[in-house]
């Protein structure tokens, strides 16, 4: 009877992985053949620019599960964190300053030179292929719902992990989005979800595109990819440079610290504003997620006038307290004289204004 039950559970798991659309689709053979010509792709996998340990195998991960699921009250807010509500009418004026709205974690709406650009728009409640497989969002609601957003000119994705590329969000954004800009291979996920191939633009590291008055460049990060059980490294990952008529912006995506930040700073800096990964880290995987002190230093490396810590304040995906990222990065930023800004979720981040003040909204009233 136990064997039968185990067999049924395995069958359910296999069917879920193979039939659930959330997993997306791997690049086809033609794409893989094209990728093989790249110096950072071999044997069916993309590679980081520098040696990066990925030794968190299944055995180690299973041993870590009790610690990960430990009932630690510091990992989530013990109060309702403030979320500023956004009126859709405030988003449609064409003469707006360059500004952003943060949705928590790594999701943003950027309004620049008359364009509406979404960055890693994960608007779902749980960063997982099924709600039972992950922990829910800290806040009860978003600053504004997808259906209330204006027409989106571009969606930019940094990589295909569930806390950045969300199936349900893409489906809801599909009809109001003109174009999707993604790392190599990620277009296969979008195509499997019904996005027209003509709307998908895949970029390699250091590849650049001019979209009307907006300059885009896709740059390296030190991370990995994969949505299924056996497709790790099958698609590329990276960071974005977005340059308008007067503002130059950097979006780090996910990744560990490395010399690529200096290279990005030399090639595309200085930046007026940089959104830098700062959260979901651990010493056991610091090569693929920066520690907060490294986040501040990376801001210096890329020559950012002001940095903003992201990848926190929405989900618990590591074992640190939910406020540890912001508390530590603020200390390091002050130590190295790096300007830093930590806005409330939903508030307008006006890049034409003063970004020097920090209200400690994450402290319980």
From TrEMBL:
All copies of domain Metallo-beta-lactamase, residue ranges: 116-312
Q: Which domain of life is it from?
A: Bacteria
Against InterPro entries, the record matches this protein to: Metallo-B-lactamas, NAPE-PLD, RibonucZ/Hydroxyglut_hydro
Q: Looking at the Swiss-Prot or TrEMBL record, what is one Pfam family this protein matches?
A: Lactamase_B_2
Q: What is this protein called?
A: MBL fold metallo-hydrolase
**What organism is this sequence from?**
Algoriphagus pacificus
Q: What is the lineage of its organism?
A: Bacteria, Pseudomonadati, Bacteroidota, Cytophagia, Cytophagales
């Amino acid at each position: 009877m136990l064997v039968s039950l185990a067999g049924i559970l395995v069958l359910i798991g296999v069917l879920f992985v193979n039939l659930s659309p959330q997993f997306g689709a791997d690049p086809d053979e033609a794409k893989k053949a094209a990728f093989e010509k790249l110096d950072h792709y071999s044997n069916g996998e993309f590679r980081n620019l520098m040696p990066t340990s990925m030794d968190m195998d299944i055995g180690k991960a299973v041993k870590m599960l009790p610690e990960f699921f430990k009932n630690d009250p510091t990992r989530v807010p013990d109060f309702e964190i403030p979320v500023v509500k956004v009126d859709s009418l405030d988003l449609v004026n064409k003469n707006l300053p360059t500004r952003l709205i943060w949705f928590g974690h790594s999701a943003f709406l950027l309004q620049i030179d008359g364009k509406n650009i979404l960055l890693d728009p994960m608007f779902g409640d749980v960063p997982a292929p099924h709600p039972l497989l992950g922990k829910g969002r800290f806040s009860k609601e978003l600053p504004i719902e997808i259906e209330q957003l204006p027409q989106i000119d571009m969606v930019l994705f940094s990589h295909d992990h569930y806390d950045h590329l969300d199936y349900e969000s893409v489906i809801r954004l599909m009809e109001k989005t003109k174009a999707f800009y993604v790392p190599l291979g990620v277009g296969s996920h979008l195509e499997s979800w019904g996005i027209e191939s003509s709307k998908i633009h895949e970029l390699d590291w250091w590849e650049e595109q001019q979209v009307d008055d907006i300059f885009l460049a896709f740059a390296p990060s030190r991370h990995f990819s994969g949505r299924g059980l056996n497709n790790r490294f099958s698609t590329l990952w990276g960071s974005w440079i977005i340059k308008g008529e007067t503002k130059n912006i950097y979006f780090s995506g996910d990744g560990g610290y490395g010399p690529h930040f200096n290279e990005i700073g030399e090639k595309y800096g200085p930046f007026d504003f940089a959104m830098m990964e700062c959260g979901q880290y651990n010493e056991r995987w610091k090569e693929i997620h920066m520690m907060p002190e490294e986040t501040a230093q990376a801001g210096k490396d890329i020559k950012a006038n002001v940095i903003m810590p992201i990848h926190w304040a929405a989900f618990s995906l590591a074992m640190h307290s939910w406020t540890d990222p912001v508390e530590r990065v603020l200390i390091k930023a002050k130590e190295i004289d790096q300007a830093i800004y930590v806005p409330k979720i939903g508030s307008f981040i006006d890049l034409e204004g003063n970004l020097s003040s920090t209200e400690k909204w994450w402290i319980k009233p």
